[in-house]
Amino acid sequence: MTSKSITTCERIALDWRDNILAHFPDWGTDRGSARWQRVRESLKIGQAVSGTVIARAPFGVWLDIGVGFPALLLVPNMQSKDGPIPFTNYPAIGVHVEGYINAIGNEGEVGISQRLAAHGDDGD
Q1: Which CATH code, of 3.30.420.40, 2.40.50.140, 2.40.260.10, 3.40.50.2000, is assigned to 8-113?
Q2: Which residues touch 15 (CB under 8 Å, ≥6 apart)?
Q3: Which among 55, 114, 53 is positioned nearest to 80, based on CA atoms?
Q4: Which of 1, 73, 77, 79 has the least C-beta neighbours within 10 A?
Q5: Is the pTM of this model over 0.90?
Q6: What is the pLDDT of residues 112-122, one digit of tens each?
Q7: Strand (E) positions, 1-124?
Q8: What is the pLDDT of residue 16?
């Protein structure tokens, strides 16, 4: 009998999904989808939000922003003065993060950015 060892990337992928489901057990279910429309209508692009990091993935961190669904802060949307952020420097689980909603999906997805998008042209 051979046992396949789990790679670090596979372990991280399993962990972030488990962490999200521990906080939002109906995420991705029919029950969650039924609630999503009402929540979606309460959110606005550009809305300031804050939350706690609940999971870390190779592509970003998941936050609990208090709306009953996880919000994703992708690496390119993380605030950084020094360029790309290595995984070891992502915000830790439990850390408070602030940002703005930059995407609202149809299936329970909320995107967060720490960079406020420019609205219109100020003529400069």
Answers
A1: 2.40.50.140
A2: 55, 56
A3: 114
A4: 1
A5: no
A6: 999 765 444 33
A7: 48-57, 60-64, 70-74, 96-104, 110-113
A8: 86
